[in-house]
Model the fold of this input.
Amino acid sequence: MLTVPVEIFRFKPGQAQRYDTFTVEIAETAHVIDVIDTVWAKHDPTLTFRRACHHSSCGSCAVRINGAEKLPCIVRLTDVWNGRNPIRIEPLRNFPVVSDLLVEVGDFFERMSAASMTITCEAEGFLPLTVDTFAVAGVLPKTVELPDNLSRFNRFEQCIECGICMSACPTMATDNKFIGPAGLAAIYQARHKTDDPTRVKHLLGLADGEHGVWRCHSAFECTEACPQAVDPASKIMALRRELALRRLRKMFGLRI
Amino acid sequence: MSTLNYSKTRQAARWFDVRRRKAGMWAYALNRITGIGLVVYLYLHLGVLSMLIQGQSAWDAFVGLARSPFYLALDVILLAGILIHGLNGLRLAVTGFGFSAGAQKALFTILMISGGIILIAAALKIFQI
Amino acid sequence: MSANAFDQESKPTVAWLWQVVTGIGLVLLLGLHMVANHFIAKGGLRDYAAVVAYLRNPIILVLEVLFLVCVTTHALLGVRAIFLDFGLSDRVEQRLSGVLKWIGVLTIGYGLVVMWFVIR
Done:
């Protein structure tokens, strides 16, 4: 068992924000979500937080651990605790805080919905169950050549809509109309799943514009923070390339 | 619903906060700092050029002053800003169109090392003058 | 019309593309400007007579004018990007762009006047 100090951001409507420190007795094998659970169960039942699956599938528990956005359900306690200083747990940035670690995600899901991100996805089910499938899942080293048609969906269905990229993105902090990395990545995905010109035009229209791909400052923090290797930054850049090429073709009177 | 929201100014200052952030964020912050510095310099430079309108004696007096070691040291700082901003700008242009976005960190390192080498060579040349 | 505020196409922008175009232009033109004015020139700076001779070369003059336009556009687009990060309303953003456009025109105008005084 370990005795771990943990410092948690607290806020309740009508009250000033503060940090509370708790000392938690917990097994060495615990994950950070277990620490939060223990604080709630044994120290302060008024602590508000969100969690469900405990295995990085639902994306609901995302917080900042020692300043960096993480899913506490897959972060081992011993990986973030230096054995001395308290582990600091704070809510995601760029979302209004409702209570303690709980943030308001309504606008975020509106963005994802606008970008056609569906809750149920095909989950790369079109792939035959071959050695490639295991390579994609990270079970085998990626020495196997992937089929051509896979690259554009590369781990894309993996987005669990945790909001971590939205918190890590410095642009998101400054423009509440910015579609954000998750939304733009979803637009890229939706755009590559359709050949319908009207649909493509609408999706690219969402991405083009002051609050779309051009607002991104290329800090690449979304890709760095994403726990699912969705790589939103590359998708934003790919959308930029397509938009720029379309504009160029239009300028020279070529068919788009 | 009453929620906790931070001020726009505090949010706008986020680009400056590189704590716990990776190379891309450092590059972004560096690009902004050097960019702001270069805009200030641009207008100072344009102001100084007004001496050209005042004629030969005003300009040649300034040239004499600008060749002092203090000004030359400032020139090295200016060149550092130009190299950081310009080389990182190339990285942003390349990755911004979807080319080698996955290699952005390696690109940043390579370009900054190249910039350092160019700066040292240029500084040696500047102080030889 | 969709009730989702994020499902609205906004006006396309070319600001970022211009930032890249002027940026690439600057790498070439600033390189030339620095080498010609500060590294080749004797003593790291041209005296008055040398500045006059330099700018009277028509090719140099064209390149320096291009440099002035590129550097001003790039600088002011950068300033605009920083201001946009203050979460301004659409109306204020439009006004800001208008003000910066005028600052740009005045800056380029001023630069041209200086060059005219030198070469006349």
